[in-house]
Design goal:
Largest sheet: 6 strands, mixed
Strand order of the largest sheet: 6-7-8-3-9-10
CATH architecture of the largest domain: 3-Layer(aba) Sandwich
Number of domains: 2
Low-confidence stretches: none
Order of helices and strands: EEEHEEEHHHEHEEEHH
Strand content: 15-25%
Helix content: 25-40%
Length: 233
């Protein structure tokens, strides 16, 4: 279970305070206006931002004292951060060893991850040789090969066409169910959340303003601020 209890961060023109509970193995979609605090929430969990108070517990362990590299998670950004001079296999291998000195077992894990995202046999290609959707799959494979129980996604599929975007979200959801991973996914298009999310958190003005199953929180009239976000009359 992931539990954020009064996690407060203060910036010169912005302060946030998060309370959020995500059951183990579930997918929580984060929606809300730009600048509302979705990315800051993910950065706090990942260790890229330092709270001044509160706790972030995952499986009973407070993550705040741990440096980012020691936290039991993987994170995918909107920019999938692939290195064009490296092969697909090497880009994935970075998730195991930044020096890319992989042993036989690690190379097998890279090959297995490629197969799980339907890119088997493409390990020797360069990212420029692949489509946008295939490059997103590389980023997912790199996160998968790390074998961490918590996955954070910061709008990684923004810019893809709706069909491909939904395909990527369903891929993450399938991997989540197969491996029992807990997933927090910031989503640019909230309608994508309904098919896969166990719960949806509406992040607004640095707070978790609402948390509910998608069939409730996405319904008109659930909360005035959500209606305004959707520009509902």
């Amino acid at each position: 279970m992931l539990e954020l209890d009064s996690v407060q961060l203060v910036y010169p023109s912005f302060d946030v305070c998060y309370d959020l509970t995500v059951p183990p193995g579930s997918l929580c979609a984060l929606i809300g206006p730009s600048g509302g605090g979705k990315t800051t929430l993910l950065h706090a969990i990942a260790g890229f931002a330092a709270p001044i108070s509160g706790s972030i517990l995952f499986e009973g362990v407070d993550l705040i004292p741990l440096p980012p590299a020691e936290r039991p998670l993987s994170i995918l950004f909107q920019d999938h951060n692939l290195f064009p001079h490296l092969t697909v296999g090497q880009n994935i291998g970075l998730g195991l060893d930044p020096r890319l000195k992989l042993n036989a077992n690690q190379r097998n894990r890279v090959a297995d991850a490629l197969g799980r995202v339907d890119l088997g046999g493409m390990g020797s290609r360069r990212p420029a040789e692949l489509s946008g959707g295939q490059r997103q799959r590389i980023a997912i494979a790199r996160a998968l090969v790390r074998d961490k129980p918590l996955m954070l996604l910061d709008e990684p599929f923004t810019g893809l066409d709706p069909g491909l975007r939904l395909e990527m979200i369903q891929l993450v959801d399938g991997l989540r169910k197969e491996h029992g991973i807990t997933v927090l996914m910031a989503i640019h298009a909230p309608e994508d959340a309904g098919a896969v999310a166990d719960q949806v958190a509406f992040i607004d003005e640095g707070r978790v303003a609402a948390l509910a199953p998608p069939e409730e929180i996405l319904k008109p009239g659930y909360l005035p601020s959500i209606d305004r976000y959707f520009r509902r009359s």
